[in-house]
Amino acid sequence: MSDPFRPLKNAFARYTTGITVVSCLDAERKAIGITVNSFNSVSLEPALVSWCLDDHTSVAKAFLQADHYAVSILAADQEEMSNRFATPGQHAFKEGEGEVFQTGAPLLKGRIAGFDCRLADRLKVGDHTILIGEIVHYDSFDAEPLVYCGRNYIKGPKISDGA
Ligand SMILES: Cc1cc2nc3c(=O)[nH]c(=O)nc-3n(C[C@H](O)[C@H](O)[C@H](O)COP(=O)(O)O)c2cc1C
Fold this sequence. Notes:
Number of helices: 3
Keywords: Oxidoreductase
GO molecular function, one term: FMN binding
Strand order of the largest sheet: 3-2-6-9-10-5-4
CATH architecture: Roll
Pfam family, one: Flavin_Reduct
Radius of gyration: 15 Å
Helix content: 10-25%
Shape: globular
InterPro entries: Flavin_Rdtase-like_dom, NADH-dep_flavin_reductase, Split_barrel_FMN-bd
Strand content: 35-45%
CATH class: Mainly Beta
Bound molecules: flavin mononucleotide
Structural class: mainly beta
Protein name: Flavin reductase family protein
Oligomer: single chain
Number of domains: 1
């Protein structure tokens, strides 16, 4: 059956983004993640970020119940992780690929930036829920990002801190 949302998705695919894996602990305290490109910075004071969670995804319940989550911005060499965390049933962290800061939410090693967040607000909109996170801790590294463009991955230019 053809996808009735294909034309709209095709238009959305014109928007180039980075790739993140958003992660939390599920009800069994296991580290899980989902590939997300709806991540955005929202505010500096307080420091807030947002992302949109598809209410139909298998991990929606875990993210709706979690008080904390983390965002790992993927590096150019983490395409395999992006594909894996976007695959049905493939949401568990593998042994050794995660680490933890203050909130207990797991982050992926090898990221180019990470945000450890406390859930600040939630807004149900259409078939998604916008999750607003207050940044408790963050880091960033000089590295090349994974870029998502027209459903293809490309390697972005090296990002360093400016003046
Ligand atoms: C590049 C890319 C970006 C995605 N962005 C989002 C997003 O912002 N929010 C979301 O809920 N799902 C997003 N997804 C889809 C989820 O990753 C995917 O639906 C989920 O991992 C499928 O697992 P499930 O079948 O176990 O629910 C994205 C997928 C890809 C490949």
